[in-house]
Write a structure and sequence with these properties.
40% of the residues lie in helices and 19% in strands. By secondary structure, the protein is α/β, with parallel strands linked by helices.
């Protein structure tokens, strides 16, 4: 039986970080309730909305089954991820409403009907991974208890740094002290799976300050860690300033690409020494705490996204809702799913995804499996990369060479030529 993931997008923040290129906004809290109502409506009516919008209905690539059938009749919900934005800004009652709508519709609690109206065994609540993204300054004891009671058992913190100077430059609301205050609150509430995000390359970051962030992360011992290199693109204020050669937003204090790569390699060493398993280019986990939801993305497993800007993947198609939250709510009030992007994958594009996403995982690509699935011969495709020391082979597996993870994008470009 296939496993299904649900992603819910909450595109609201307290402030816009200087490096952020996401479609999020700072809005009055009075807009939260109508948005949550629209999301719950989309979840409950998703089958008819998909059908009317013409998404989620194509035959899955290399399979004969109708994707609507296996998404709704056969798939069992095992992960929920509420991301953003800053979804921890919502009232606990809002989050409870979203989770109730998901459980009523997709039968994640092992009782009742599945989303097609058929009796199903479902997935016991304790075996589900339910993640909430949160910022440290939004954590309160009563909220954390309500989250745990609602079934949220994993919290992903966008910390980015433990150094206040770097947090101020990046436009973050929290400070180092907020992190140390928030983590015990979550632990006391019974949340035993916590993930930290750090960004390598923030303005004013040095090797010494980066080491300090890694040391403090190790002292708090989260179950999961994500390390991202600062993205520089015109979609963010800082990225645009850097590309234009300006000095706003501490653009002149951004580390070089070589320094960012060095920071990444320092993180590899520190996290490995602390017992974390490096399982994806940007992700480390203590044994058994790998992100089950995010693994669906890398393994090309099905997931449905709800909310403004949320993306979905059926196995044959990818589609996304309109990013503007107000336009999304208006469309849902009109009984229409505002699909902004829709792509039916070809075998060729699916194969490219297999290679790109497969190499992001430290285990690598099972070449024989992909050759069998797609009817292609891949061995020669990796020869130039292996000769250049960019990938390594072991049995039937091909993976990025350990020393090339920090320059993975260059490897991907070469592979897709």
């Amino acid at each position: 039986m296939r496993k299904l993931g649900i992603y819910v997008q909450v595109p609201f923040c307290q402030t816009k970080c200087t490096y952020c290129n996401f479609h999020t906004g700072v809005v009055a809290s009075s807009r939260f309730a109508p948005y949550v109502e629209a999301v719950c409506g989309e979840i409950r009516a998703h089958r008819e909305l998909f059908r009317t919008a013409g998404v989620g209905c194509s035959a899955a690539i290399l399979e004969k089954a109708d994707s609507q059938e296996w998404l709704c009749h056969e798939a069992v919900l095992d992960t929920v991820y509420i991301g953003g934005g800053t979804p921890s800004l919502l009232d606990p009652a809002h989050l409870q409403s979203i989770l109730d709508a998901i459980r009523e519709t997709f039968n994640g609690n092992g009782e009742g009907e599945d989303c097609g109206g058929q009796k199903s065994g479902g997935e016991p609540p304790h075996s589900q991974e339910v993640t909430l993204e949160a910022d440290p300054e939004t954590i309160e004891a009563e909220k954390a208890k309500a989250w745990a009671q609602a079934g949220i058992n994993r919290v992903s913190f966008g910390l980015q740094s433990f150094v206040d100077k770097e947090l101020v430059a990046a436009g973050r609301m929290h400070r180092r002290a907020d992190i140390y205050r928030a983590v015990p609150i979550l632990r006391d509430a019974g949340i035993r799976n916590i993930s930290f995000d750090l960004i390598a390359g923030l303005p004013h970051q040095t090797k010494e300050s980066w080491r300090r962030s890694l040391e403090e992360l190790g002292a708090l011992a989260p179950e999961h860690v994500s390390i991202y290199l600062l993205e520089i693109d015109e979609g963010s204020r800082l990225g645009k300033e850097l590309l234009q050669g300006g000095g706003k937003y501490s653009a002149g204090a951004v580390p070089s690409e070589d320094e960012m790569a060095e920071f990444y390699e320092l993180a590899q060493g520190a996290l490995g020494a602390a017992g974390y398993h490096h399982y994806e280019i940007s992700n480390w986990a203590k044994p058994g705490f790998e992100s089950r939801h995010n693994q669906k993305y890398w393994r090309r497993e099905p997931y449905l996204g709800f909310g403004a800007g949320a993306h979905s993947f059926s196995g044959a198609e990818r589609w996304a809702n309109a990013h503007d939250a107000a336009a999304y709510v208006h469309a849902m009030e009109s009984g229409r799913l505002p699909v902004e992007q829709h792509e039916t994958l070809t075998v060729e594009s699916a194969l490219e995804e297999e290679l790109f996403l497969g190499l992001r995982q430290l285990d690598g690509i099972n070449v024989a499996r992909i050759e069998r699935m797609y009817g292609v011969a891949l061995a020669g495709r990796f020869d130039p990369l292996a000769s250049a020391g960019l990938v390594e082979r072991e049995g039937g597996m091909v993976r990025l060479a350990p020393g090339k993870l920090s320059v993975s994008n260059e490897v991907f470009v070469e592979l897709m030529r």
